[in-house]
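Subject: Predicted fold for ComF family protein, 232 residues

User T.R. writes:
Posting the sequence so we have a shared reference for the thread.
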Amino acid sequence: MNILDIIFPRRCPLCDEVIPPDGKICPECIGKAELVQEPVCKRCGKPIGNARKEYCGDCDRKKHFFDSGKAVFVYQGAVQHSLYRFKYANRREYAAFYGKMACIQYARWISRLGIDAIIPVPLHRKRRRERGYNQAELFAKEIGKRTGIPVETKLLYRCINTRPQKELNDQERKKNLKKAFTIAQNIVQLRKVLLVDDIYTTGSTVDAAAECLKVSGIQEVYVLCISIGRGH
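User M.O. replies:
I've generated the structure tokens; pasting them so everyone works from the same file.
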């Protein structure tokens, strides 16, 4: 056993219990994380439970700046608690599990799209300094490692330190994110990008980021999140 495995033992990304160094997830936790499955909204990827519907209620009512989106898990139970630790309790190692599961489900979809670069939704520099890392960037790098697609972290910036979105309703979220992102010059002339984040709720964050990316000249923006709520 490596000395680092003793000092920093591997933990199950769902229950946070210590697992063997070669382990990925507790046997007891298999099945606790609900994967997103069809039928899903054709725009944002929320599970809608009705194969006759094309879009969830949110996407029926509003226009998005991103072209389409997918998510790995339904945001509930063990996944909800796992993402809280990933985001706020320094469980950076969870990113490997999320990235692996994302590629198991969506590597073919990503390949078909012909993505030029993966772009994580950025944190404001103050929040990143406080947290020590950007969870979306860790997730993006795991996907990049498995797909061979470059991860671009110097193109999109968060210029306003916005209030946490979870505290706000839909209209407040949009207002909160107005002019929150800025773009560096698109020197490499990317055409299609995959924008990644941890949680998709109403889509306000990825919409604001996607709008900014398209202003820079990027033609198509697709979204992949670790988790998403249910649609109606």
